[in-house]
Amino acid sequence: MDRNIKRILAVLVSVILLVSLFQGITPGVLGTKAEEPAEFNEHKKAAKSDRYTMYVNEDTLSLIITDKVTGAYMESYTSYDDGLANKTWWGAMNSAVVLTLISGNDDTKQANTFNDNITKKVTYTELGFTATLYWTTYKVGLTLEVSLTDSGLVVRVPDESIKEDGDKYKIGTIALYPYMGTSYLDQKEGYILVPDGNGALIYLDNKERRYSAGYSSMIYDTDIGFDESKVETLLWDEYKIVNTPEQVIAPVYGIAHTGDGIAYLAVVEDGAMRASIECLPNGVSIDYNRAYAKFVERKLYTQPTSNNSTSGSLHLTESERAHSDLQVRFIFLSEDEANYAGMANAYREYLKDLGVLKELETAYRTRVDFLGSDREKWVIGTSAVVMTRVNDIRNIYADLEARGVTELFTVFKGWQKGGVNNLPISKFKPDPKVGSAKELAKLINDSKAKGIRFYLYNDALRINPSEYNVTFNIVKKINKRKYEEETYKSVYEKFDWIIPSRTETLLNKLVSKMNRGGVNSLALAGITNNLYSYTYSGKNYTRYETAAAYLKTVDAVDKENDLVLEQPFAYLWGHTEAFLDMPMYTSSYIVEDTFVPFLSIVLKGVMPVYSEYVNFEANKQEFFLKLVETGTYPSFYITKESSSELIYTNSNNVYSSQYDVYGDEIEEYSKALSDINAKTAGATIAAHDMLENGVTRVTYSNGVKIYINYGESTAEADGMSIGSMSYIVAE
């Protein structure tokens, strides 16, 4: 055969082989039959684990993470250029690190690893690489450490590596791989997981530029050390008319490309106390979907120049940057787990492996809380308004027992002398009109003997300036102005906050006196879901230091007592026997497409989770179905007397609470939800699906499935008919 013909045939065979090796390649999916290439899309192989391979572009440090089993992959940069992004946006989209810089009063200057003059030294390790970066123009630098693990990716910046060598520019914020999992318009099927309240999704459909802003919220809520109250939520500067947005309770976010069968859950492991979660759909400035954590190193703040707020102020920058390592862990998920339920299950196992989550006793109990007393204005001072006495609680328990409701959980609020707003509490001294210390201790211990979990409520954060001298040991913002929390109530108009060291002292006093009185069960609030920066005795303290102090205090109480926490931030989850006041909805931001019970899936079957109060829900039928869907236990706020007695107190928002009104409802909720729990006891939520016909299907690890129909008509699912606004449990 002619040599040229042989060459042509050889070339044709090679082409055929290459096509067969890489057949079926689509955006986001690498051909599964191919050997792992040494290079992929101008990225070279840097590390591999049992399931994933990491590729890096050494020039930009951008990444591609591929699933070796399915061939799906995610990029940390955009491989599609629509030609509309300007230089700044294009640089950010293709950068491993994006900084904002502060110069004078300007904190908008951006620097990244794509556009700017930087010196870079890349050293490869067994698990990935380390890159030492220095922005020569701005004289700032840091070291980026990237490692591939069995479950995904860890990205880290050691605190000691951050450099600020110049006088003109200081680092404001740092974002690490802010475009991990990015996509253009609706080229990907999937969504962004938003940690708003219990959880929300932003779909990756074409938003048609409807939104000018995405979701942005600080992890563990705003920092009152810098941020002012928002008067737009007030009516005539007096009445609060808009609900407070839900907090970011857990430091997570995620992106799922459900069409490709790949997703990640990002966990902010270090630096979370001073970081925000940014979830931006396409159309917000650019037509690309993205989600990331933004670490705050320094902030600008306003310093008034006199006591007269109208006389002027200075704009200052924090003199010292925050000190913490910065670390984000990307947990990658594939195939059937590449969805929000898979993310929640992965987060649960991650927390269990860390020892943060312990598998607690999760037997069903209905939460029935009581209000003891509050105060109303009188001719001179205030007068007690007694709502529920110790003997009233005994009688209510007896009535519930007669109804067959014996599995109970109680938090007693307003038990202390002076009523529910007499704060702080440092003595085990009940309001005498509610009952004596001996009577209260006997009630608690008698209740425990019957299997009722009974806790005394303590807000360990707030101090009432109308009742106590607040000259010392109170929180002052970084500008040295006292922080005052407005109540928009008529009896006690403001509360101050106690600094962490004083909280520790007072809490230890209370617990010691409770223990001596034979009581060792406490429900803690205030410090469980608030973090702030503050100044004290000439020194500034960051949220890192506040969190460390609260963790130490809570740990000490937990070791000697039965402790439950009110809506605790995730860093405290290892120190509570139950989660109180789980949000059942989101903040309902317009950019969010739907609610998902992310936190409920994480905690169900591991820790008892109790809802916010049923009393105050406008649509109780829908709320009941939410309890069914999420596996959350109901909570009621109860008084013996009519709530009309509270109209002139700070508890005037408790507009319906009398036991005579709620006895039947408590019985109905208890019977229905305890029956469901009997079938799901000890199981976790394995899957959560929103079906096309409007039915939600919840699948438990023991095989039980619950179908919830929120629609206005009967719907079919898996061969069953579910009536409007009802549910079916299928074993």
Computed CA radius of gyration, to the nearest angstrom: 28 Å
List the uncertain runs. Answer: 1-26, 236-241
Could you say what the CATH architecture of one domain is? Sandwich
Helix content: 10-25%
* Biggest sheet statistics: 11 strands, antiparallel
Task: Give the CATH class of one domain.
Answer: Mainly Beta
What quaternary form is this?
single chain
Instruction: State the separation between the terminal residues, measured CA to CA.
Output: 71 Å
Average pLDDT, to the nearest integer? 92
Please tally the β strands and state the result.
48
What structural class do helix, strand and pairing data support?
A: alpha+beta
The portion of residues forming beta strands comes to 25-35%
Total number of helical segments?
10
- Gross morphology is globular
Please provide a written account of the structure.
This protein is an alpha+beta fold and 731 residues long. Among the domains are: 1-26; 87-354, Sandwich (Immunoglobulin-like); 671-731, no CATH class. Helix content is 19%, strand content 33%. The strands form eleven sheets. Strands 8, 9, 10, 11, 12, 15, 16, 20, 21, 26 and 40 form an eleven-stranded antiparallel β-sheet that branches. Strands 27-30-31-35-38-39-41-42 form an eight-stranded parallel beta barrel. Strands 6, 7, 13, 14, 17, 22 and 23 form a seven-stranded antiparallel β-sheet that branches. Helix 6 runs parallel beside helix 7 (543-560). The longest helix is centred in the last third of the chain and has 22 residues, at 659-680. The radius of gyration is 28 Å and the shape is globular.
